Amino acid sequence: MAKNVVVDIDLFNPRSIDLANRTLHEEIERFNQKVNEFIQRLAEIGQQAAQGAYGNGGAVIVTLEPLENGVAILADGDAVVFLEFGAGDTVNTANRYADVMPFEISSGSYSRQNVDRWGRPGMYAQYGYWVFGGTRYTEIQPRNGMQHAYDEIMSRIRSAAQEVFGS
After folding, report:
1. Alpha carbons within 13 A on the beta-carbon side of 12
2. Phi, psi dihedrals of residue 138, rounded to the nearest 5°
3. Left (φ > 0), alpha (ψ -120 to 50) or beta: where does 141 sit?
4. How far apart are CA 51 and CA 46, in angstroms?
5. What pTM does this model have?
6. pLDDT of 59-106, one tens digit each?
7. 28 phi and psi angles, rounded to 5 deg
8. H/E element holding 154?
9. Which of 15, 30, 50, 71 fits a 20 to 30 Å CA distance from 132?
């Protein structure tokens, strides 16, 4: 539970003012430590949600990276964009991050953007399917790992704050 700190100040006593100032700075430092703990806790919640959505098979690894003013949740893997947004017939253009990617997220966008040496788009753009490992595909189901991270953080932000700061 959060505590209130009361400091009596005698305006005519410089030591009293110094003590109040020291107490204030200690409380600010304690609060800042709690804020950092809260941010770390939210990042861990997001990391777990994203990794759970991507699966634990190792195709995508979700890590945390400390920043100057927070923590970044990073998803890394060869096919992370395909696993986040899907591919082919099942691309999730409604994913909250689709519009902020530095490339188009839509059905067939990868195939259209990656042309061969003769300027032809990829197989999906030409035929509505692609072949990988001898198997014909028309879709990759989106796993929305980072979307799940955001949603889980938002759903648990209040309880995380209560855990860290008290009620």
Report:
1. 0
2. -120, -10
3. beta
4. 8
5. 0.85
6. 999 999 999 999 999 999 989 999 999 999 999 999 999 999 999 999
7. -65, -45
8. helix 145-165
9. 50
